[in-house]
Amino acid sequence: MFTQILISSYTAQLAAFLTVERMSTPIESTADLASQQKIRYGTLKSGSTMDFFRESKIPIYERMWSVMESSSPPVFVNSSKEGIARVKAGNYAYMMESSMLEYYMERDCHLQRIGGLLDSKGYGIALPKGSPLRDILSRTVLQLQERTILEALKNKWWRDMQSIFYVLLTGLTVAMLMALGEYCIESRNDSPRLKLTIIGMIYDWWKGTSKENKEQKARNKLRNVQLDTAGQVLPNSSTPSKGYTSGRKNENRDLIPNTISKEGLRRLSRMLPATDEKLIHQRLKDSK
């Protein structure tokens, strides 16, 4: 899911970029918008942008206000979402504050800004006249701006992409819980489907390793018992000599003599596998 969201986001951004590069935009500025009649334009009803056009004394903005005021059906919208919806529907340009415009553009690749700013204004905090907080707030805002804290906050809320990593973490958690539940359910019946999952493969590998270790320990134990019993099967040597014994210390066991008769070797071969016969010869050779 995380990969799909990441690829979809990248594809949408790339497609929008390439489309904007190839598209011949008929509107490049406010003057182009005012000199044509095909694309209608409007603002938020009773908003600051509407007040700007209504109170402006610049001729081009006065002409645009006259066109917007006399348009039928009305070009003013009740919310920014309604204005963006009309833009997507086609043949409509929505004029709004630059901060809100940047916010919507960061979240919708189908939107495009045309031209520069119509006007430059700043935001302020309203306080009672003569309030002692005025200078404190002004200095604080200037400090936040100088330390680029305001820019960092803007990048956090405008261009933050960490939410898709939360999707990745959620997907991994759900996948682990589902895998654990599948293992618990399928392991009861020893289902062949369990062996096809990753957990089943890991479990089979661990089970096989444990089984091999147990079998190897059992073979070693049996071999030690057989070697200890071999001294009782073979005939005792009349001449004391060095020998070999297998098993625990401080236990009285017969030593395997250095010389073994053919009959003893034949009887010993019946007890041990063929590979262990070579082991007997090698140990007897080392004990000389």
From TrEMBL:
Pfam families on file: Lig_chan
Membrane topology: Multi-pass membrane protein
Subcellular location: Postsynaptic cell membrane
Keywords associated with the record: Cell membrane, Glycoprotein, Ion channel, Ion transport, Ligand-gated ion channel, Membrane, Postsynaptic cell membrane, Receptor, Signal, Synapse, Transmembrane, Transmembrane helix, Transport
Main location as per UniProt: membrane
Domain Ionotropic glutamate receptor C-terminal, first and last residues per copy: 4-160
Ranges of biased composition (kind: Polar residues): 226-244
Transmembrane parts of this sequence: 164-183
SUPFAM superfamilies: Periplasmic binding protein-like II
Domain of life where this protein originates: Eukaryota
Cellular compartments per GO CC: postsynaptic membrane
Region feature Disordered, mapped onto this chain: 224-260
Gene Ontology molecular function: ligand-gated monoatomic ion channel activity
Family of the protein in this entry: Belongs to the glutamate-gated ion channel (TC 1.A.10.1) family.
Protein name: PBPe domain-containing protein
Organism: Heterorhabditis bacteriophora
